[in-house]
Amino acid sequence: MTDSRCFHCHEAIPDNTDLTVDILGQPRHMCCLGCHAVAESIVEAGLTDYYKHRSDVADKIEGELVPTALREQFEQLDLDVVQDEFCTVEVDSKEALLSLDGVRCAACAWLIEKHLSRQAGVVRATVNSSTHRLLLRWDSSTTKLSALLLSLANLGYQALPYDQDAEDSSFLKQKKNYLIRIGLSALASMQVMMFAVALYFGVLDMEPHQQAYLRWVSLLMATPVILYAALPFYFSAATSIKAGHPNMDVPVSLALILAFTASAYATWQHTGEVYFESISMFTFFLLLGRYAELVARHKANARAANAVKLLPAVVHRVSSESVETVPVKQLVVGDLLLLKPGETLAVDGDIEKGNSHVDLSVLTGEHAPIAKGPSDPVFAGTINLDQPLYVRVTEIRDTMVASIVRLQEQALASRSRPVVFADKVARYFIVALLVVAALTATFWWHYQPEHALWVTLAVLVATCPCALSLATPTAITSGITRLGASGVIAKTADVLENLATIDRVAFDKTGTLTHGQLQLTEVHLFGDKLKSIPPLAVAAALESHANHPLAEAIIRKATTEQLIWSTAQNLQAVAGFGITGFVDGKQYFLGSRSYIAKQLNLANDVPSHRVLLASEHEAIAGFDLDDTIKNDAHTLITKLHEQGIQTAVISGDQTSHTEQLASSLNIQVAAGACSPKDKQSWVAARQAEGERVLMIGDGINDSPVLAQSNASIAIATGTDIAKRSADAVLVGERLTPIVTAINIAKHTRRIIRQNLAWALGYNLVVLPLAVSGMLPPYIAVVGMSASSLIVVVNAMRIERLKS
């Protein structure tokens, strides 16, 4: 960087412009007020490390730093009605997926994350430098989104709500660009290879002028390859060198440029060997590998994103007078919709009337029809197959499908431990490769100078760590994609590694192994108490604001019997045990047998029922409830045992009910009457014995144990806090995707090990051959390219893994 160039954007500095900013201990010259302002902002924020690690210069800031029109656009994004279109509410904060403009390298991503993390109200900011997306979570009561976007604009980056159509357009543009380069290099490879065969095998019968002609034609065919098709490698290599972290494109670029230069020189001087066919083939195979990687990464989000795009834009809303067709944007929660046979549901809701079979393949990947009836939840993307259904809207924008897209975006944005490790190994390997290549060139220059260049080229090409760099991330991406197709949505990339090593699967009971649709079968009165007010009405009053299966069953039964209950006062709940409150001025307790015994200070003289109602002095009534086991629960347990994985059920339900369920499903360990802390302690005790535990749950009381476990999966229909605590979310009603997810994780780990073993083993075998001069460059090209393609194709096998 010279003083004639802007330190920030590297544009030429106009005459009579004297703008400087002290950066990294030196005055740096700027070309305009825009770059000067951005650089000052970076320095004042204490983020000058950006200039140490950036691998490309920033975009030039034209005109105003933040134009008035853009400021106004940011302000529009603060409106609630606008944010409802692209934001989701997460507890006390909001989250949005934004597209970034101006990101040029990994240092840009680092700068954006560091800058936003220092802004008041920002909870989390994660930048995916490959897709140029920003996942931003902020406290809307502390700061406005426009203020955060404006602060980014002052650094030279523009962030706006993510647009799937724009993303698809960008992918298609990249795909087209790759296909043009691949086609050009393939065409050149075929033509130049024919000339190379003639040169190698027909040289004894050729006149010198014929050989020269073939060489010149080969040079002509290879020139577009080296000047156009291979350009992405040069740019990537240059930016990585600037950042001080040379990547795999450095040896690739060196090999291409040296080989072409030497071959062109040999053609001009009519002496020495030419390797134009190696250059063309090398570029072709390398581009083919990059194209396969691009497609594999795009497929990770395509399935869920397409599900969102294919949702209908209009629905049939039922009013008191008629059925009208209205846009989805006009719906509000609570609206009643008519879903006709063959139609797709555009929102989430609960069936209010009607029985039919539906196709949930958009969520679960399974096309088998599923019976649905009143009170059953249905989600956006559900296809009605048989009879009309009347659906009450529960969620319009943040639907299950939209949540899947967001979760997969989070997973793909995160970097798993194997990926971080592989990147580190590849980085050191590249440096070592460059050192070995330099030593090889030095040795051969003194030993046999005429072979020095070709031997060095063989070293650079044959041992390029492309396969090593592709081995892990391609497998992880394919694994997350296959996991989503099976109905298990990963929240972090590490979930694959964690699932692959579990020894025991522990289940919650109600809502996990059972349907969670408890039915109140009988009410037992103890004596003649509460004649003036039915015990069921008191229980309904206490549970009216609760959100768990027991409460729903009690309220549903009370509603069916058309009971009327007063509003409970001073409610206090003990998660997993019970609740107390005042109804009509009198205190009551509702909960498990142990909870009632503790409240009444009784030891054993407490009736044995699933749920008990008591006053301050005595038990009043007992409620018996029943639940049904999920259809494939037994199949899941059997498959887990066949793989040598132990099982357990740990529940807050009574011990007798828990043990009965465990016995019917052949689960090895049962622990009932567990508080949230008891569940967490149980898992911690197993971990202390060396076990790695996968926890499956759905309730509020499962969140501590989900966080404690080595891996965890929450049921999609469970509570939000459970889903936030888990590593993955199980969508649909079937449980067997859990064992499929474990198999996918193990298969992914096996693929990663195969890829790494192949990449490292190949390099260890081929390096001595290349250094010793026994490996011609054109053979090195085939070997390296084949190695890269092998690991990509091997990784993509994960997506074809059967359930």
Automatic annotation (TrEMBL):
<dbReference type="InterPro" id="IPR027256">
    <property type="entry name" value="P-typ_ATPase_IB"/>
</dbReference>
<feature type="transmembrane region" description="Helical">
    <location>
        <begin position="425"/>
        <end position="445"/>
    </location>
</feature>
<dbReference type="Pfam" id="PF00122">
    <property type="entry name" value="E1-E2_ATPase"/>
</dbReference>
<feature type="transmembrane region" description="Helical">
    <location>
        <begin position="213"/>
        <end position="236"/>
    </location>
</feature>
<keyword id="KW-1278">Translocase</keyword>
<feature type="domain" description="HMA">
    <location>
        <begin position="94"/>
        <end position="160"/>
    </location>
</feature>
<dbReference type="InterPro" id="IPR023299">
    <property type="entry name" value="ATPase_P-typ_cyto_dom_N"/>
</dbReference>
<feature type="transmembrane region" description="Helical">
    <location>
        <begin position="778"/>
        <end position="796"/>
    </location>
</feature>
<keyword id="KW-0813">Transport</keyword>
<keyword id="KW-0460">Magnesium</keyword>
<dbReference type="InterPro" id="IPR001757">
    <property type="entry name" value="P_typ_ATPase"/>
</dbReference>
<keyword id="KW-0597">Phosphoprotein</keyword>
<keyword id="KW-1133">Transmembrane helix</keyword>
<feature type="transmembrane region" description="Helical">
    <location>
        <begin position="178"/>
        <end position="201"/>
    </location>
</feature>
<keyword id="KW-0812">Transmembrane</keyword>
<dbReference type="InterPro" id="IPR021993">
    <property type="entry name" value="ATPase-cat-bd"/>
</dbReference>
<dbReference type="InterPro" id="IPR023298">
    <property type="entry name" value="ATPase_P-typ_TM_dom_sf"/>
</dbReference>
<keyword id="KW-0547">Nucleotide-binding</keyword>
<feature type="transmembrane region" description="Helical">
    <location>
        <begin position="756"/>
        <end position="772"/>
    </location>
</feature>
<keyword id="KW-0472">Membrane</keyword>
<dbReference type="Pfam" id="PF00702">
    <property type="entry name" value="Hydrolase"/>
</dbReference>
<keyword id="KW-1003">Cell membrane</keyword>
<feature type="transmembrane region" description="Helical">
    <location>
        <begin position="248"/>
        <end position="268"/>
    </location>
</feature>
<dbReference type="InterPro" id="IPR036412">
    <property type="entry name" value="HAD-like_sf"/>
</dbReference>
<dbReference type="InterPro" id="IPR044492">
    <property type="entry name" value="P_typ_ATPase_HD_dom"/>
</dbReference>
<keyword id="KW-0067">ATP-binding</keyword>
<dbReference type="InterPro" id="IPR017969">
    <property type="entry name" value="Heavy-metal-associated_CS"/>
</dbReference>
<feature type="transmembrane region" description="Helical">
    <location>
        <begin position="451"/>
        <end position="472"/>
    </location>
</feature>
<dbReference type="InterPro" id="IPR008250">
    <property type="entry name" value="ATPase_P-typ_transduc_dom_A_sf"/>
</dbReference>
<protein>
    <submittedName>
        <fullName>Cadmium-translocating P-type ATPase</fullName>
    </submittedName>
</protein>
<dbReference type="InterPro" id="IPR018303">
    <property type="entry name" value="ATPase_P-typ_P_site"/>
</dbReference>
<dbReference type="Pfam" id="PF00403">
    <property type="entry name" value="HMA"/>
</dbReference>
<feature type="transmembrane region" description="Helical">
    <location>
        <begin position="274"/>
        <end position="292"/>
    </location>
</feature>
<dbReference type="InterPro" id="IPR023214">
    <property type="entry name" value="HAD_sf"/>
</dbReference>
<dbReference type="InterPro" id="IPR006121">
    <property type="entry name" value="HMA_dom"/>
</dbReference>
<dbReference type="InterPro" id="IPR036163">
    <property type="entry name" value="HMA_dom_sf"/>
</dbReference>
<keyword id="KW-0406">Ion transport</keyword>
<dbReference type="Pfam" id="PF12156">
    <property type="entry name" value="ATPase-cat_bd"/>
</dbReference>
<comment type="similarity">
    <text>Belongs to the cation transport ATPase (P-type) (TC 3.A.3) family. Type IB subfamily.</text>
</comment>
<dbReference type="InterPro" id="IPR059000">
    <property type="entry name" value="ATPase_P-type_domA"/>
</dbReference>
<keyword id="KW-0479">Metal-binding</keyword>
